[in-house]
Amino acid sequence: MTFARMQTRILDLFQRRASPAYVVLLATSIFLFDTWSPLHFAVAVLYIVVIVLATLWFKRVGILRTATLCASLTCLSFIITHGPDPDGSAAARTLISLAAIAITTMLALLNIATRERLIAVEKEKNNLARFFPPTIVEQIATNDIALSTTRYEPAAVLFVDMIGFTKFCSVMQPQDVIAMLRESLCTLSASVFEHHGTVDKFTGDGLIAVFGLPVSNDLSATNSVLCALTMQARLQTWNDARAATGQEAVAIAIGIHYGDVVLGDVGCESRLELTVLGDTVNVASRVENHCREAKASILITDAVVRRMQSEGSEGTVRRFTDWGLHTIRGHSDAIRLFAIPRNAVSSID
């Protein structure tokens, strides 16, 4: 059990019993003991126990009020006990008590700030974990990487979409469609994370993934292609399991392009979304759509191939067949495409 979790459990235990009356009762007891006790030492130092308990029970305002109460009772006890003409040692003891109260209060407030920071970081990590792999989540949280800073950087963009999704919707019950989508998208996103990619967004029956952002990677193109091969291999395993229960096989199309993209927040102030934009994204989308016409399970552009060659991934490049120049919808210039046919069996290795 981590220290933060242990602290949270202790805090929950005390909060269930929290009451301002306990603080007042304990502070009053210390005041009475400090005022009428014959012992000559800084009894008021015991007020730090009250402040420590207040740290477990209250927020900043409650702690400050508790500290003010303790300091006031310390001064009142000093006046009642020693009157207008105290000796030097009594004044010194009182100053020590006040200093202890002040120091404990400062530490208590710092403890609250640290605890709130840990909670905020944990929430941020949980939120980022929906879109980023664990390694990137740690880098973002540890190095305080500014995701909201708009920038123009190279990246590999992968589009994956289910083929014939409309047909499934027309013959399956709604709850079965959602269950199938959740299972397939969970598998697809897990493949993205395993290859150091990020999920830009889910598109209903597919997703958009980016490799090389927001943290740069020297193998972004290679990782994107290995991710696509993993997706197809795991899809085959999933389809085998579906066939065993009499369910129809699912097919997906994957398109990948490499180039410069714009990374930034889009939307309105009430709902912003970190996403990638630009011609690279559009081409990747068109390449994925072209898989249907080309009867390919994976299509990658020559830009991806060139980048993979510069990354030293010649072996992975050789797994693809050069299908020559193709004109894709929405793009005036022909693009050289490399493919794995739809009937080919992909493997992860």
Automatic annotation (TrEMBL):
Q: Does the keyword Transmembrane helix apply?
A: yes
TM ranges: 14-33, 39-58, 63-83, 95-113
Give the top-rank taxon of the lineage listed in the UniProt record for this protein. Answer: Bacteria
Whether Aminoacyl-tRNA synthetase counts among this entry's keywords is: no
Query: CDD domains, alphabetically?
Result: CHD
Specify the Guanylate cyclase domain's residue ranges: 156-288
* InterPro entries membership: A/G_cyclase, Adenylyl/Guanylyl_Cyclase_3/4, Nucleotide_cyclase
Keywords per UniProt:
Membrane, Transmembrane, Transmembrane helix
A Pfam family it matches = Guanylate_cyc
Kindly give the PANTHER family that the UniProt entry links to this protein.
ADENYLATE CYCLASE, TERMINAL-DIFFERENTIATION SPECIFIC, ADENYLATE CYCLASE, TERMINAL-DIFFERENTIATION SPECIFIC-RELATED
* Protein name per the record: Guanylate cyclase domain-containing protein
| Source species | Methylobacterium trifolii
